Amino acid sequence: MKDSLSLFLEKIFLYENHDPRLLIKNKVHLDPKIKSTILAINQSGWCWTLFCCQGHIRGKQKGCIPYVVFIVKNEYKSLLLEKIFNNIPFDVNIDFPLMNNFRVEISPGFKDEKYSIISAHWYCNMALSELQLVQDSMVNLGSSIVEEKYG
Length: 151
Fold this sequence. Notes:
Layout: H1 4-11, H2 35-41, E1 47-53, E2 67-73, H3 77-86, E3 103-111, E4 115-123, H4 128-147
Antiparallel strand pairs: 1-2, 2-4, 3-4
Helix pairs in contact: 2-4, 3-4
């Protein structure tokens, strides 16, 4: 008998090699700066990742922005959104204190009675120092997800 997350993955046509709990077994490549965070999130029992990118300013993936596509148990959606918001890098210009220099775009995806997909894309000017702040915030987000024992 399949568990409810496996059934959800089948509904969105992502199963077998796309089960986020089996990334190591399936030898899925993960960007090195967020790899341990992604693996930890996928063991949380309440939140998982489908796709992710640490963001790249060099190489063949140059210009790719940082993002994570999450699957979350519906009862914890607001908690995940709060954690994403609380882990946005903070750099406000005092001359214009109404906006942060960083932002995260949230997009809801497919949902059913048990799970929802939430995509988060981090935006900055993609200078190395700012990208590092975003990557650090992604790691901090992962740590805050893992701290919760809802699984």
